[in-house]
Amino acid sequence: MKLAAHRTLTIFLTTLALILFSELAYSQPSYTPSQSNLEARKWFQDAKFGMFLHWGIYSELGDGEWVMEVRHMAGSDYQKLAPQFYPVKFDPKQWVAVAKAAGMKYITVTTRHHDGFSMFDTKQSDWNIVQRTPYGKDAIRMLADECHKQGIRIFFYYSQLDWHHPDYYPLGSTGWGAGRERKGDWNRYLDFMNGQLTELFSNYGEVGGVWFDGMWDKPDADWQLSKTYGVIHHLQPQALIVANHHKRPNPGEDVQTFERDLPGENKAGLSGQSVADLPLESSDTINGSWGYNLTDNKFKTTRELVHYLVRAAGRNANLLLNVGPMPNGEFPPEAVSRLQEIGKWLQQYGDSIYGTRGGPAPPASWGVSTYKGDRVFVHVLDTDGPSIALPKPSAKVLSASLLRDGRKIEFAVSEFGLLLKLPPSDPNVFDEVIVLNVEAASPPKPSR
User: Of 181, 131, 142, which is closest to residue 55 (Cα–Cα)?
Assistant: First the structure.
């Protein structure tokens, strides 16, 4: 059989099997998480810190992952990027090592973004890194294999929005400049998408979960989420579904994520939704861009990034911090240096972050609190006063000390609350962590 004919038959049979089996077995109109899923949720909450990676053929233009849309590029012009993509410096071993050294516990990588270009070896379309680029290798497999070797969990970002596929129709709020015909079969597009997800959750070992994005492009469309989520949970019951749709979670979703915002805040205008009783995550960039941007030099300081991580933990959330790799496959050096510095900070203060939950003192301008077992960690981030006042604790405070050197801290408890005397301010200390040892008869009530 000729290769083209064999490929066509393979795609047809795979899609047909998916449609028939998903109708019978994958659909989950009501969702009860498996035991392995519940365990994965706990692991996720304990992990606290992950790396986000936005990397694709758009990286070549050095203008972010939305360059096709922002520049109103026709699909025929955008496709010229693929034959030029050859990341000679891509080293998945180094990528994972940088994440580990930073104290990150998982990596979420773009398997495909809104341009529809797949960074993995998919049989559903030839619009992928293996068939359209001279590089010709499955970058996602290489990264997933290395994550498995180094003990980092791999999550797959997957865009439900597609500026390339002819069946993504009717168009949503974006993609009008791509020059596609104004026709298509929506159900066929969903089958294509489910076919790719079947590949990702069948061929790359154990996957931590999927990070969906793009549903906001067509919020009123029939996304048939029950079927799609059923595909994933059937293939890998432990896998966590994270949906970045800026709404309350739907049935079948395992983590609530907030783009460029902390849970309960809405500074970026995307997170007005209420906070659900699920594991939480906040995502943001190390500079101002998701995909590589040649002129974006507004890298956040290490202090700012540490404060973001701490404030997320105080709200019971993880921080998913994004790096946009360069087109040659290397991380920007400014990003690497920031990550190294965060890793050094976590070596000293990580006990107050990993495995914790939001503590009894609600987030305030001065900082946040976290807790673990019989210890409450008071994270003093920004205050000029000699002391801070906290709500009266529900458990008896036995002692208070600095995490960094064990020095005792004076405190007083009254009917009005808990008063902590602060040490002299040190400009080199990003976060003055005070450890309260408490009677653990009942854990303190976590704050949001």
Answer: 142
